[in-house]
Write a structure and sequence with these properties.
With 326 residues, the protein is of the alpha+beta class. Strands 1, 2, 3, 4, 5, 6, 7, 8 and 9 form a 9-stranded antiparallel β-sheet that branches. The model has no long low-confidence stretch (mean pLDDT 91).
């Protein structure tokens, strides 16, 4: 790690251990990492791809998603992202809501895969969800599977995020909130799409991190399984920026209000999805944020990464609160 004064140091579990822990989640606040030592493992091709469904499958999709998250501790090789998307360009008489599930199974496979791997049985064609209307499911390498997920480069994008309980009623409601807000815009097609992405955040992830020295995300506060909620809006033209930001403010405010009303909102905000008005470093909690600030005071005495390195979320504003926590 190159520190603010130009010194190069190592950070490991045993050398500068406080810096090692604080770097894992603090973004660009402590130094420039120029070398990583990784533990490598052999990996075969993966089973995965995308599967597309109609909106009528949402209730069964959410039930299966909640069960998938609960069972990750039994088979941690499964990965699933549930994507609820609204496309205004689709004719109104058709179904403008599309469900896209992103599946990956990372267990080393031998021989052909003729059915969904065990963690995904709740999404198989013979499940209550039924078969997808289209899919790209296959056994392939990682770069091929991730390459099909790229977004169109010419669009403006906005992300915002929250973390919530893994609960069927909760997930049903947060998807319905975006659906209700979209109706307000009627046939105004300034949006290319409006999406909600749901990703499991099981306690298993925290336990594995603690075994390897921990981090400053503050997830050790939670004994239960949780879900990362990501709002993703895409639109054309800067003339529509205000509309998109207004929609994000309304959706995130309504989701936050609902989650607080049922005691399902967690403070953690995944920093890579956080909106500029959010406070992901503060969302780690006072103890974790204190570790980052202590490392900054110790390893960046001149505060180079606070004063001379713009961008990202800075420590000066951390802990000031999430705009949507009302």
């Amino acid at each position: 790690v190159v520190l603010g004064n130009g010194t190069v140091v190592e950070a490991t579990n045993t050398t500068n251990a406080d810096l090692f822990t604080a770097l894992k989640g603090s973004q660009n606040n402590l130094g420039i990492i120029t070398k990583f030592d990784f533990v490598a493992f052999r990996q075969s091709d993966l089973w995965g791809g995308t599967a597309t469904y109609g909106s009528k499958t949402v209730p069964e999709q959410i039930k299966a998603f909640v069960e998938f998250t609960k069972n990750l501790k039994n088979d941690p090789y499964g990965s699933l992202i549930f994507v609820w998307s609204y496309f205004p360009s689709i004719p109104k008489e058709s179904d403008r809501i599309v469900i896209l599930n992103l599946y990956e199974y990372t267990a080393n496979l031998t021989g052909p895969v003729t059915t969904y791997p065990p963690p995904f049985k709740g999404f198989a064609p013979d499940s209550p969800i039924g078969p997808p209307v289209a899919n790209t499911l296959r056994v392939d390498n990682l770069s091929s599977l991730t390459g099909e997920l790229n977004s169109p480069p010419e669009l403006s994008n906005l992300y915002a995020t929250l973390t919530m309980n893994n609960s069927v009623p909760v997930l049903n409601e947060v998807t319905q909130i975006l659906s209700n807000e979209i109706e307000y815009y009627g046939n105004d097609t300034f949006l290319q799409y409006a999406s909600i992405l749901l990703q499991p955040l099981p306690r298993l992830f925290t336990d594995r991190s603690i075994e390897r020295g921990g981090n400053v995300l503050g997830l050790d506060r939670y004994e239960d399984d949780n879900i990362i909620y990501q709002l993703d809006l895409a639109w054309n033209g800067t003339q529509n920026d205000a509309k998109a930001h207004s929609l994000a403010d309304k959706v995130m405010g309504d989701v936050t209000t609902y989650l607080k009303s049922v005691n399902a909102l967690k403070d953690f905000q995944y920093i890579n999805y956080a909106y500029e008005k959010q406070d992901p470093l503060g969302g780690y909690g006072p103890s974790a944020l204190g570790k980052i600030k202590a490392a900054s005071a110790k390893y960046d005495v001149g505060q180079v990464f606070q004063k001379l390195v713009p961008g990202g979320f800075k420590l000066a504003g951390a802990g000031s609160g999430n705009k949507y926590k009302r």
